[in-house]
Structure formats: C-alpha cells, structure tokens
Amino acid sequence: MGQLDLTGRRVLVTGAARGLGAGMARAMAAAGASVMLGDVLKDAVERTAAEIAADTGARVAATALDVTRDEEWAAAVAHTTAELGGLDVVVNNAGVEVTQLLVDTDPDEIRRMLDVNVIGTMLGIKHGLRAMRRGGPAGGDGGVIVNVASVAATIAFPGIAGYSATKSAVDRLTRVAAAESGRLGYGVRVNCVYPGLVATDMGVKLAVETSGLGLFDGPEAAVGAVVALTPSGRLGEVADMADAVVFLASDASRFVNGAGLPVDGGMGM
C-alpha cells in the first residue's frame, strides 16, 4: 500500500454534508477508504454520501450526527463500526462561525460556537479514542484523529474573536489528546489542521459579514485583505484542505503526532 493509499481504512467525517467536510470525505474515498459521513443535516448528508459513492466507487454511507450530543456520538461511532467493519480514522470537521465585534458580543452565539466547535470536538476525541484504542470496540490496534482548527487560531483577524478562541481551543485539545493517548498506550495519533480561508458558504459568509460590520469596504475588499496576508497569493481550495487531511490519516504521517499543520498558504506564519 502506498503511503497516501487509504485502502482498508474506515473513516468517520463530521460536518460532511457540504463544504470542507464533504471535500475531505470525497478525498478519503478517492484514496481508497470506506467513509461514513456524519452531519446534523440528515437529508443533505445522505445526498452527498450517494454522490461520493457514485463518483468514486468507494463504500460510503451517512449517519445523522449532532456533534454536541454525547449519545449521538456513541450511536454514530457504533453505527460506523458496524457498517464499515471497524473504525480507523475520525475527522472532527463540524464547526460554526459567528462574526461579531467584541463590543457587540452575544453570549448565546458564543455558547453556540463553544458547543459545536469545542464540546463537539472534545466528544469526537472522546468517542474516537474509546473506539480506536488498542483493545477497543473498533477492533484495530490504534488509529488516527484529525481535528479541524483554523488559521483563525494563529492570527488576529477582526470580527472573529469568539471563533478564533474556539479554534485555539481545538489546537490545545489536539495536543492534550495526543499526550494522553501516548501516556496510556492507546496507539491513536491526534493532529489538527489550520485551514486558510476557502470560498465555501462559510468563507463567503465571513467576507460579507466582516464588511457589513464596517471592517472592510465590501466582501471583495475583505477577500483582498486575506489574499494580501497570504504569501501564496490566493485563497485556499477545498482540495488543499482535503489533501492535508488525507496525509495526516495516512502512513506518510506515521511519526506526526500532537501537531498542528497550517494549510493556509503562509497566512499564519
């Protein structure tokens, strides 16, 4: 098996109905993995799973999953293990972003981001470690967890203080999880990626909303500001992020653990 060949791997990707999550699931399937797509958007995630299966010929299924609910995580992991014959990789991608100035902080919106971005990731780590650790119900000898943070965890960009805080938390969770897994002999590597801005629905929303707050003259100016901060001179693409996740799930990254991989064209350096 080539180092970036995921043949035989069983993968669960959250927030997989659309955007980055759908792209990551597609890339995993194209690399040979069997993939379970989880999302709170049940109908949408089922459609995406069917499309990926038709396009790649891989074994692809979908499950309803609200990442903020412990019992839904338990059910989704059990369903994935039964449907795919085990579990080797968990990608904690599900996330929400709220744009607001600090002087206009809405505690309810911050709590919503904390629930999805932080608690959702913690629960994914919890159930991923429990299932994939040596002797766990996934039936393997360890596994991989990839958490999706953001370049927002590494830069100071106006209008996204709460989101930046939650994604900084994802970075810390990643490193503690890797340390615990190693200390307890679980055999599960835990890493995260820091995606740059991508023109998904969430990325477009950010450009529109930051300009609406008076931070930029318009959405195009907001995008231009991001590009100006990026040495690679462009926005990210879904494939850029998806390929990085495939790398971290593969044997090519077998000695990469407790790390954060910037996939931001240099924006956060």
Structure characterization notes:
The protein is of the alpha/beta class and 269 residues long. The chain has two domains: 205 residues, Rossmann fold; 39 residues, no CATH class. It has eight helices and seven strands, in the order E-H-E-H-E-H-E-H-E-H-E-H-H-H-E. Strands 3-2-1-4-5-6-7 form a seven-stranded parallel β-sheet, sandwiched between helices. Helix 4 links the parallel strand 4 and strand 5. Helix 1 crosses helix 8 and helix 3 packs parallel to helix 4. The radius of gyration is 18 Å and the shape is globular. It starts with 9 loop residues before the first strand and ends in a 6-residue tail after the last strand. The relative contact order is 0.15. The mean pLDDT is 96.
Span from first to last CA?
34 Å
Number of strands: 7
How many discrete structural domains? 2
Mean pLDDT: 96
Q: SSE order in H/E notation?
A: EHEHEHEHEHEHHHE
Strand order of the largest sheet: 3-2-1-4-5-6-7
User: Could you say what the CATH topology of the largest domain is called?
Assistant: Rossmann fold
Helix content: 40-55%
Uncertain residue ranges? none
Summed up, the helix count is 8
Mind telling me the C-alpha Rg?
18 Å
Report the principal-axis shape. Answer: globular
In terms of topology, how is this protein built?
Elements: E1 10-14, H1 19-30, E2 34-39, H2 42-56, E3 60-64, H3 70-84, E4 89-92, H4 107-132, E5 143-148, H5 161-183, E6 188-195, H6 201-212, H7 219-228, H8 238-249, E7 260-263
Parallel strand pairs: 1-2, 1-4, 2-3, 4-5, 5-6, 6-7
